[in-house]
Amino acid sequence: xxSALCASRWRAPDDHSPLPSSHINHQSFAINSxxxxxxDPFFQRALLAGLLIGxxxxxxxxxxxxxxxxxxxxxLSHTMLPGIALGILVTGALTQFNxxxxxxxxxxxxxxxxxxxxxxxxxxxxxxxxxxxxxxxAIGVAVLPLLDESNELEHxxxxxxxxxxxxxxxxxxxxxxxxxxxxNLFFRPLLLTLFEPNIAAAQGVPVxxxxxxxxxxxxxxxxxxxxxxxxxxSVGLLVxxxxxxxxxxxxxxxxxxxxxxxxxxxxxxxxxxxWWANLSAGPAIVIVLGALxxxxxxxxxxxxxxxxxxxxxxxxPNH
Length: 319
Hints:
By secondary structure, the chain is mainly alpha-helical. 76% of the residues lie in helices and 0% in strands.
């Protein structure tokens, strides 16, 4: 009798035994915590914005990497801040529309102005870009003390995609459609201009117009990323996706479409991480994309540093 009682005490519960209430509460809390951000309307808009901006900028990063113009993107990204400052100075208010127009006007002036100077003088484009963007940035710094809203500019420095509105989403969608449609429509002449401008000119491609078009699309992509990652970090969203894919494939179409998918997936996953870890969304997006690039650099099957160490190690000495 006693042995039967002890056996009944230590017998494992069968499949139909009810779970303890604490275990059920813990599971339900974990599930609710996982799905909580998806019920937040602000986070829903942020996810859509991350998909749109991440895919558009990730796709266009293929042109940036192939052209090797990451430093130009960095210069133009810093030009957006003085544009926003001048927009506030002219209109007297800091709004989404004023910030967008100011950033767009400043980057167009500096980016296309550097091309114009290089085409009409002996000054190289890189030199003209450096002079124009530092001058614009200095003007922005000089204007900042005159603004009452200078403390609010931190939002535009590092971005906050969780504050996007429905109108911001439609604007990102419209600009994304323009960039993707134009890039695909002129895909072959743009690539030919990047790789072989002399051959492109011989085949009747308007090389100068293609360069202006490429810079214009680059500036539009930069301005759309302003809300997501801000002025300072926007260069990461326009370089990292295609740079990561360049370590994994030699196929040019994958560099663009794969970069778009990587930019969208990285942005969405970074938003979720930022929500659960209580981090800023803009820096989280760039951190995730930077981590993916580091993984590709170290572990990539074709060009990974650790997986192909024999290619980088010096040959053994001859005895």
